[in-house]
């Protein structure tokens, strides 16, 4: 019987994993550990499915090859935690799940856009201190009167654009490959024009060498002082130090961050006792009353979790059976 190891497994994934194993007559071993700590479990399995944000140790690829593995499937869209070239050099085919549910992240980004437009972050902080007043600078903006800029108009960005258009918002888009199928929905403009005109900028780009540090001080300087930023893509797309300065100085009004630099040691972690002293920029963001922080959970819906399990296991079985996967990552 085919045996597959899945690492970093959460309780909410177990039902989907059990169902898949029964339907496909395979054995699936699960562990909450990262593959870094569970490599010994690969000595007696045929396939491997991982999920993590921290980079894999450079010596792990040779270990997996020595244990007879032929592939690594990450049940995430991002794959920057894997050294693809080193994996390939060790005979390991790498796959990801590029579209587990574009709607899940798009809906989350839409919620955050609403929260920024309605300045709920201000009221959250005030009410937490039993201050129930409201002030003239907290007057909000109705979405059908707003201009929303989407940087990265792919599967997720395009889905968000359709939701925004249905609500009457003006939608600007910036992408290296503008989509003609979104004519009448998105007005594609330059990055600078988008930053200057948008009431909220929402980021939906992959993390790659060209997108790392995509927004810095000079970009924030172009934005309206009343504008907000949503990041539900990857943390390093934004220079966090520059963002902190922009938020402190009033260069922009607010930010809703589901992803942020330093999240690999913060997201999914209990920091109630340890605090954030080892991540000073995250600590600063956490303390601000114009920042909404969430722990990389934009994807976290019923459909998305099901698809992440199913698609990653489909890819694993395909490769183990000598077939190709359309999700294979090639550099």
TrEMBL record:
An example of a Pfam family matching this protein is: 2-Hacid_dh_C
Identify the stretch annotated as signal peptide in this record: none
Q: InterPro entries, alphabetically?
A: D-isomer_2_OHA_DH_cat_dom, D-isomer_DH_CS1, D-isomer_DH_NAD-bd, D-LDH-like, NAD(P)-bd_dom_sf
Superkingdom per UniProt? Bacteria
- Domain D-isomer specific 2-hydroxyacid dehydrogenase NAD-binding as annotated: residue spans: 110-298
Gene3D superfamilies noted in UniProt? NAD(P)-binding Rossmann-like Domain
Alphabetically sorted, this entry's keywords are: NAD, Oxidoreductase
TM segment ranges: none
Listed PROSITE patterns = D_2_HYDROXYACID_DH_1
Coiled-coil residue windows: none
Indicate yes or no for the key word Kinase.
Answer: no
Would the keyword Oxidoreductase turn up in this protein's UniProt record? yes
Q: Which residues form the D-isomer specific 2-hydroxyacid dehydrogenase catalytic domain?
A: 5-329
Family recorded in the similarity comment: Belongs to the D-isomer specific 2-hydroxyacid dehydrogenase family.
Q: What is this protein called?
A: Lactate dehydrogenase
Source species of the chain: Limosilactobacillus caviae
């Amino acid at each position: 019987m085919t045996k597959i190891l899945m690492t970093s497994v959460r309780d909410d994934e177990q039902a989907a994993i059990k169902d898949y194993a029964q339907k496909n007559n395979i054995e699936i071993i699960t562990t909450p550990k990262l593959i870094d700590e569970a490599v010994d479990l690969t000595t007696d399995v045929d396939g491997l499915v991982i999920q993590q944000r921290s980079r894999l140790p450079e010596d792990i690829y040779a270990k997996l090859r020595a244990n007879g593995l032929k592939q690594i499937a990450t049940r995430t869209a991002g794959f920057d935690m894997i050294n693809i070239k080193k994996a390939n050099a060790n005979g390991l085919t790498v796959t990801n799940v590029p579209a587990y549910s574009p709607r899940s992240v798009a809906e989350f980004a839409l919620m955050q856009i609403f929260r920024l437009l309605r300045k709920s972050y201000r009221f959250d902080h005030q009410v937490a201190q039993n201050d129930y007043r409201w002030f003239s600078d907290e007057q909000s903006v109705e979405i059908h009167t707003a201009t929303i800029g989407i940087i990265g108009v792919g599967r997720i960005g395009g889905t968000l654009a359709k939701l925004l258009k249905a609500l009457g918002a003006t939608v600007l888009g910036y992408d290296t490959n503008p989509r003609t199928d979104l004519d009448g929905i998105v007005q594609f403009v330059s990055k600078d024009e988008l930053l200057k005109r948008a009431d909220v900028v929402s980021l939906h780009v992959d993390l790659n060498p060209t997108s790392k540090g995509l927004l810095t001080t000079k970009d924030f300087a172009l934005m309206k002082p009343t504008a907000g930023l949503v990041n539900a893509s990857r943390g390093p797309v934004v220079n966090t130090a520059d963002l902190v300065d922009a938020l402190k100085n009033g260069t922009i009004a607010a930010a809703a961050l589901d992803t942020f630099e330093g999240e690999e040691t913060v997201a999914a972690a209990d920091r109630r006792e340890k605090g954030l002293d080892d991540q000073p920029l995250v600590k600063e963001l956490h303390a601000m009353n114009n920042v909404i922080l969430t722990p990389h959970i934009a994807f976290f819906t019923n459909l998305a979790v099901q698809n992440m399990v199913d698609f990653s296991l489909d890819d694993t079985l395909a490769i183990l059976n000598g077939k190709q996967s359309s999700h294979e990552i090639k550099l």
